[in-house]
Amino acid sequence: MNMNVVNYFSNIALPMIILIILFYGIKERINMFDVFLEGAKDGIEIVINLFPTLVGIFVAIGLLRSSGVIEVFINLIAPITNSLNIPKEIMPLALLRPISGSASMAVGTDIMQKYGVDSKIGLIVSTIMGSTETTLYTIAIYTSIVRVKKTRFMLTAALIADIVGMSISVFLWQLLS
């Protein structure tokens, strides 16, 4: 498929969805402006409820990155990661990925710029980025919206899934290269 066709459909997708919603509202005789205002009010309420959680997460990430705790932890677990043949270069990403998407994106970009996107390290990093989630961030956001307090089992399962995704990423690229 030609990229111009893809770009064309990308550009018209959102306006078409908006038009379909408007036509449906007119057909069903729904006061679209009132519905819009109600949705905007709910959105502002969600932002206000999420704000303390987001501030806490961003402060914690900033403290982790600037304090050097990540480097100390990587050096502590180096004997284990070396024995498992896990490249030391990916460890900052492996530690930050469950916490923050933007921090892990910055670390992943730095790693790829340093080692190259087609290097084994670059391939492992890109596979980790695609096969894992920003677990703590996602759980914090979703549970604070619905006011869930007990997240222990959810967190455990999600972190295990992240570890599996990272382990498979490393194993796969160790096997393929």
Please supply descriptive tags for the structure shown above.
82% helix; mainly alpha; 177 residues
Describe this structure in words.
The protein has 177 residues and is mainly alpha-helical. It has one domain (51-176). Helix content is 82%, strand content 0%. Helix 2 (32-67) packs across helix 7 (135-146) and helix 6 (120-131) packs antiparallel against helix 8 (152-176). It is extended and about 65 Å long. The two termini are 31 Å apart.
SS-derived structural category: mainly alpha
Number of domains: 1
Instruction: Determine the oligomeric state from the structure.
Output: single chain
Low-confidence sequence ranges: none
Q: What characteristic shape results from the CA principal axes?
A: extended
Distance between the termini: 31 Å
Rg value: 22 Å
